[in-house]
Write a structure and sequence with these properties.
43% of the residues lie in helices and 22% in strands. The chain is α+β, with helices and mostly antiparallel strands. The strands form two sheets. Strands 1-2-3-4 form a four-stranded antiparallel β-sheet, with helices on one face. Strands 5-6-7 form a three-stranded antiparallel β-sheet, covered by helices on one side.
Length: 153
């Protein structure tokens, strides 16, 4: 099986604009007069955190491979083996995410349900009719179903 790699999604790019707005506000605070040291430290920390978050948003990926599903998200990296995958579902995005998208699109997500946790990778947020994500979801469904078929022998 060839690896299916999903990255460079529109949703992640749009969401990466939010940390950029915070950076602009922090830089503006830092350049106004002589702010107190505590405010400068908070603004610098916010800039660092926003840059890291935007970087992770722009580099988030999902790879469906022979060994399982590898996810690089904003707050986690996960390697989920096929034995851990119970099911995968296409889901609608919540109102908060639709609001953050400012009407650019109404993204749909994917929930990867495992034995101990459910992951909703940002790299799989997409249009409702995204063929690349549908192909990845189909491959995950086939592999997850294959692991639960009892062996006869």
């Amino acid at each position: 099986m060839d690896d299916i790699v999903i990255r460079d999604r529109t949703v992640a790019r749009v969401l990466a604009l939010l940390p950029a707005v915070v950076v602009v506000l922090c830089v503006r605070i830092l350049t106004l007069g002589a702010p107190p040291v505590a405010l400068r430290v908070v603004a610098a920390a916010a800039v660092a955190g926003c840059c890291w978050t935007a970087y992770r948003l722009l580099t988030c990926t999902v790879t469906v491979s022979e060994s399982g599903v590898s996810i690089r998200g904003v707050f986690y990296d996960a390697d989920v083996t096929w034995e851990e995958v119970m099911s995968v579902e296409r889901t609608t995005s919540g109102p908060t995410l639709r609001l953050l998208m400012w009407g650019v699109m109404s993204p749909r997500g994917v929930a990867l349900v495992g034995r101990s946790r459910t992951l909703r990778p940002l790299a799989l947020l997409s249009h409702a009719d995204d063929d690349e994500v549908d192909r990845a979801v189909g491959a995950i469904r086939v592999r997850a179903g294959a692991w639960r078929v009892p062996e006869h022998g």
